[in-house]
TrEMBL record:
Domain of life (superkingdom): Bacteria
Stated name of the protein: UmuC domain-containing protein
PROSITE patterns: UMUC (PS50173)
Cleaved signal peptide residues: none
Span of domain UmuC: 2-101
Any matching Pfam family: IMS
Length: 110
């Protein structure tokens, strides 16, 4: 049996662990030079902010809707990803990591 673990809005979720007041608010995480959106909260998606959107083109929308934007913190995301993997690995025989927020697991059913 196979299972896929995909941590939805992973970078945003990691930011929310640092600041719980971000829950239920529009949040985006921006790429390495703050150029493009690389992660969006559900609330940001509902505002129509697309993945890979150039941040400068959405600056006014961010301001109008109080969208919180963050520079990517890849060390934090990697650390949190490893925590998720440790939990998932405790339930499986084998696993493959596809990306920082996506793992393929082979489950042990007893």
């Amino acid at each position: 049996m196979y299972a896929l673990v995909d941590c939805n809005n992973f970078f945003v979720s990691c930011e929310r662990t640092l600041d719980p007041t971000l829950e239920n608010k529009p949040v985006v995480v921006l790429s390495n030079n703050d150029g493009c959106v690389v992660s969006r909260s559900r609330e940001a998606k509902e505002l129509g902010i697309p993945m890979a959107a150039p941040a400068f083109k959405y600056k006014q929308l961010f301001k109008e809707h109080d969208v919180k934007s963050f520079s990517a913190k890849f060390e934090l995301y990697n650390f949190k990803s490893q925590e998720v993997m440790k939990i998932a690995q405790s339930y499986v025989l084998e696993y493959e990591v596809y990306s920082i927020d996506y793992q393929k697991l082979i489950l042990i059913i007893s």
